[in-house]
Amino acid sequence: MTNILRHLIATVDAKTATILGVRTLDMSLNTQEIQATRSDPMVTPVVTGWLLVLCILLTLVYPASSLYAIFWQAAPKLVDAHSDTRILLPGVYSGLFAAVAIFSFRAGLNLWLVKPDAVRFARRYLLTYLIANIAYFVFWTLVVRPTQMLGLAEMGWYHVVGPIASTALWYFYLEHSKRVRDTYRHG
Predict the structure, then answer these.
(1) 33 and 55 inside one domain
(2) Residue 109 resides in a domain
(3) What is the Cα–Cα distance from 173 to 7, expressed in whole angstroms?
(4) Domains in the chain, number
(5) How is 37-49 classified by DSSP, letter by letter?
(6) What average pLDDT values come out for the chain (187 residues) when binned by 10 residues?
């Protein structure tokens, strides 16, 4: 019994000495060490500002507008189609831009959740978005062979000029933004 009692007292004394040693060590930390422990890289940065706007555009706005264009513009044309050309154009449009919308959602979600390589993935999305729009414009031009400049100008504005401007703007933002660098510095 006395051996057990001595062992318990020794254990309590060892724990007390450990606690006192830790407290002494804590008091000897200088402010630089304390600040270093506070900037823990495991804390997920918050997505705000223009970066949040880009996340909302990629995750919500572009996929929703693509689904709208597919289901309320392209799909009715598919249903009413009477020729191969009238089936081909909305079919290609629906398939291509549904895939781009899924890519957009994933890119926006990766940015929003501050995933590793999210910025690189978003840049790839932007280039894919641009290439898909230009490719569809070229495809449309080859299939339709427009005779009126107004139709060609409208498609060019919607599938070439607009995507070039938005891709350039957001790509430049992702490349040069201090907020993007600070938010994704660890990945």
Answers:
(1) no
(2) yes
(3) 66
(4) 2
(5) HHS-TTSPPPP-H
(6) 53 49 46 50 82 98 96 85 83 96 99 96 99 98 92 94 98 97 84
